[in-house]
Design goal:
binds 5-phospho-D-arabinohydroxamic acid, six-stranded antiparallel sheet, three-stranded antiparallel sheet, globular, binds zinc ion, Jelly Rolls, 17 strands, mainly beta, 190 residues
Length: 190
Amino acid sequence: MKPFTTEINTENGFLKNAHNHLQRRLSSMQGQYFDAAAYDALLKKEDTLVYEVYENINMPKVPGELYHGSSIVHPGKVGEEFFMTKGHFHQVLDTAEVYSCVHGHGYMMMETPEGEWAAEELKPGVVLYVPPRWAHRSINVGTNDLITFFVYPGDAGHDYGSIEVKGFRKLLVERGGKPAVIDNPRWAGV
Ligand code: PAN
Ligand code: ZN
């Protein structure tokens, strides 16, 4: 493989020459938002685009490679809960990831299989290190697109399994006009 460049548009997150463009609409996030009635009502109106990812993943799936790209979470809410990515553990749990925020305002919600959790604020200039073993989900709490640039090892893979079933332990919702962390009522054992 030869060196190559791509170019990120810091206003809209578009990654020129990206190998892959993924779009996730509300309909592909069934069961992910805690307010099911609000989800159904919103989906009835429109199958809104929630987030997009431009990625360079055409390299071999080996630890020495670095998959990278941009993630754009559009602004919006389902009930009180902010628009967010599905979120995942890495399939190879012992792999880390770096996120750099280039636009907008959000949080990264994170947790380990052992029950630790953390929510770090994302705003332009912030570089976040997601250590090995920490599941991660980007959440847009602002009124503009939340745009991040991410880099992770080529062998990491994605494990959506447990999060699709019960979500993260904590949710980020709007309370009194501000983002607030609450317990996820759907989380098994709660
Ligand atoms: C990112 C994420 C991206 C979309 O590339 O995959 O932000 O989020 P979901 O994969 O949770 O839908 C990353 O963390 N890769 O490892
Ligand atoms: Zn990841």
